[in-house]
């Protein structure tokens, strides 16, 4: 069974995180428009960024946000970005990362986490539904807002 563990994003592992590969067709789903718009106002002090190591090698990245004072509810406790290397997809890396973020949210007193994705055949919707997220709305750009009750 593969060993999965989290490590803080650092100068030591950021190059590997930036070089995670994607399966064909996944490029368009990396960052929904809503995140690009909100990125200009996100507080770097509320960011939670980790890499996932699979048998000692960087296989995934998760960026969460914990800001109970955010004007937009969907950004108070959320998965901002999750990337899993194409070769590691289907091996539990993404689920492990999302569960770690959910546990951190619980520890901070949140009752749910959210995520936003663009709908599409090669997109992450099936993954998020498999790990328990349910659709709760839509952004002004037509993206899906999903939530996981903790």
From TrEMBL:
Matching Pfam families: Acetyltransf_1
Keyword Methyltransferase belongs to the record: no
Transmembrane portions of the chain: none
Domain of life: Bacteria
Residue ranges of every copy of the N-acetyltransferase domain listed in the record: 4-150
Molecular function in Gene Ontology: acyltransferase activity, transferring groups other than amino-acyl groups
Record protein name field: GNAT family N-acetyltransferase
Transferase listed as a keyword: yes
Keywords, sorted A to Z: Transferase
CDD domains: NAT_SF
PROSITE patterns: GNAT (PS51186)
InterPro entries documented for this protein: Acyl_CoA_acyltransferase, GNAT_dom
């Amino acid at each position: 069974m593969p060993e999965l563990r989290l490590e803080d994003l650092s100068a030591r592992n950021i190059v590997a995180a930036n070089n995670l590969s994607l399966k064909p067709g996944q490029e368009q789903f990396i960052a929904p428009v809503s995140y690009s718009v909100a990125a200009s106002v996100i507080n770097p002090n509320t960011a939670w960024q980790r890499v996932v190591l699979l048998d000692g090698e960087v296989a995934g990245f998760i960026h969460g946000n914990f800001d109970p004072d955010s004007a937009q509810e969907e950004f108070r406790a959320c998965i901002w970005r999750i990337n899993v290397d194409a070769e590691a997809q289907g091996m539990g890396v993404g689920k492990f990362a999302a569960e770690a973020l959910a546990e951190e949210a619980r520890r901070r007193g949140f009752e749910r986490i959210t995520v936003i994705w663009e709908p599409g055949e090669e997109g992450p919707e099936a993954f998020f539904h498999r790990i328990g997220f349910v659709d709760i709305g839509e952004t002004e750009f037509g993206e899906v807002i999903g939530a996981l009750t903790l």
